[in-house]
Cysteine protease
Amino acid sequence: MAGPLNLKLPSTSPPLWSSWVSPICSIVKMRWTVSGQLEGSSLTTDCGWGCMLRSGQMLLAQGLLQHLMPPDWRWADCHPLTDVDFEVLKPRSPSRPAAMSLPSFSSSWTSPISQRDPSSGSSEGHRRTPARYPEASHEPQLEALHRKVVSWFGDHPSAPFGVHQLVELGKESGKRAGDWYGPSVVAHMLRKAVARTAEFHNLAVYVAQDCTVYKEDVLRLCESPLTQELSESWKSVIILVPVRLGGESLNPSYIECVKNILKLKCCIGIIGGKPKHSLFFIGFQDEQLLYLDPHYCQPVVDVTQGNFSLESFHCNSPRKMNFSRMDPSCTIGFYAQTKSDFESLCSAVSEALSSSKEKYPIFTFVEGRGQNYGLEGQSGGSTDGPANIFSCNRMSRNSKRGSTDEFVLL
């Protein structure tokens, strides 16, 4: 099988990727940095405590690229992958040959967002509508947009999704610089950050409550009038679902379900990690999760300069680890551009969730609104007040930990 880089690869046991991994080096990667002093703190770096913030940035960045860029886009300055880059993906046993099948792309902007994968049993047959930028086929404009997206995550107080802004938003949830941020808290921080950014009048972020996506809440959030001047009736949506996949360790019964979720084109990744270590999961190969790791400290890049280097925001190859090492506390991300996409997402994800051997699914989609079930917290609209964090009690009855959203610092 040949990928878009014309790499001849074995066709057996291919890894499965979220739709935006196209190719690997186009993924925006965030790392710890040594930057200016954070307001209200003596800290000048997020090294040692900000890894979940960095993982959350990577998740949001992939959602934004999927929202703004054409499906066939990839970073023009991507370095060709070498045998060294693929070394991490080689199988541990000769009896289990590995393969890395990079997806190929159609030149059409109306390519199907997903086609039926016979190995997954799931289907998303809807087609993605053209991107919102009519001249985006001109490569310089695409690269300028890519650079702009990256700049939104810069370590600068004015960057809307930078660490400075996220730390400020964390104060509303009782967090401060130097604290540990769990995946559920970060999900709400990302929601607030997008809601407060004027450029994203046509994008909303919904955070599931109590492991439940309330479909009417999503519809109300996305169908609400944008402004009096705009006639658009639907906001694209990033759906973030904080979950717990076991007690103190990952419940093996959920592994197949996680695999099926990562197969879906609507999935934009998972933030979580292994104990003491936050990671950004982008796919899997056999019994190994593929991930990007933010635990590398580097000098800050000045994104206010027009020609700032993009190299440190990308990497050539992911790492991998066994599913058993994954921390059970995580947040799963999805993206739907249109109302039809959202309906197909609900169907495809529900089918993937049904593969769990457990009595209770990882999370559910239900009709109606959260307030109809006694949940007053707004998961998508309001940006004021503390984040409403709900524990998935039905999934963590045997948990011995006091919180479903805490990790242990390195």
About this structure: The mean pLDDT is 70. The chain has one domain: 17-101+112-395. Helices lie at 51-68, 83-86, 139-151, 163-170, 183-195, 215-223, 255-263, 339-353.
